[in-house]
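Methods, example record. To illustrate the input and output format used throughout this study, we show the complete record for DUF4192 domain-containing protein. The sequence lines were provided to the predictor; the line carrying structure tokens was produced by it.
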Amino acid sequence: MKNRINIKASRAEDVLGYVPHQLTFHPRESLVLLSMRGSSLGATLRLDLPEAGDDARLAAFAETAVSYLGADTEADGSLVVVYTDATGGAGTEAFAYWPLAVFLEDLLGVAGTPVRGAWAVGPDSFRCVQCRTSPCCPPQGHPAARIKESHVNLEMMLLGSSVSATAGEAAVLARSGALPDAAPAIRARARDLAAGFAGEWEAGGVFMRVLGSWDEAISSGTAEPLVLSVLLASLESDHVRDAVLVLACLDPAAAYYGAVAHGRVDPLRPVPPELMGVLPFDGYLPGSSGPEPGADLFTDILLGSYKPPVERERMTRTSELLGLLHRLAEGAAKPAAGTMLAWLEWAQGRSSLAHAHLQTVLAESPDYRLAGLLESFFGLGTLPAWLRRPPAAAGESPSAAA
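The corresponding predicted structure is encoded as:
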């Protein structure tokens, strides 16, 4: 997980130096909104800029952006940054995104988070958008070098934060890292388990124990080699794959009972005892605190239409686990892990990283159906409904959206 610092928004270059670290890459042709709590920065939202020139489209885009930033209910102000190669002299009549800046200023003011600063950032310079009505920057803008030399950028680098040039490079970094010494044994064991459990993953007893293994690994942040082998092998099942995404957002009960209600699991199907004996998790999943979750909840999570808060910290830990599994994976498990990583990035609002993960999956496995479906779905520009709500865990910081 990335280190977090309490950042004071004292200078434009400090704010602009912070944004790439929060996103993990340098944004291009993007709108970035930041909420403020007093003089401190809060949530970060990044969206691809629409084409300029259509004011109705820009107004609708502004409404969508402001609705997602509203997840930070403690915010009392906001900042706006437009990243575009075509600044056209931001702060002048030539700046094509001036209407968008006006729409955002009006909507954020109505939302109780008035704009305290707005900038346009190009490849070589940055300047205030408000210069259009009250000139405060030199005609050529301020040199971009001031952002790299800012106090916040240097402090973040000292804390070990790094910024990739593009979202694609950031996605590669998320999948990179050292493999455990036991990697050959983990892979060999996973191949054996995948062969032994072929056609058996959806039996209730197996499904329950496998979800238990996933839950323990996600909750603890660690997993023994045998558990990693089970997790890898289980990715051969599309139903396990989808249930793990629900598990990452909520809990084992929602994942298991939702999969049963969805017809993905047969809780009464017998399993040979010799297969059950090789699974490391032999306990029972916790019962639901209310009525057993149904098929609608399962579907709502996968499609992002679930409105109550989700467990964002669990999502982060699941992403870290899947990064390791993707490095270990072979065969069908590899595109499954990569696609799950993409979905989790989208679920946390980081659509650029989600697209980058999907591009890798489709380059390696062009026929992997879920990756193709998600690429089309994410391309609609929709973000999950739960991002419009504050985080579920007390004291948890709003996640960056990229």
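Annotations derived from this record:
DSSP finds 17 helices and six strands in the chain.
Residues 12-163 form a domain with the Cytidine Deaminase; domain 2 fold (CATH 3.40.140.10).
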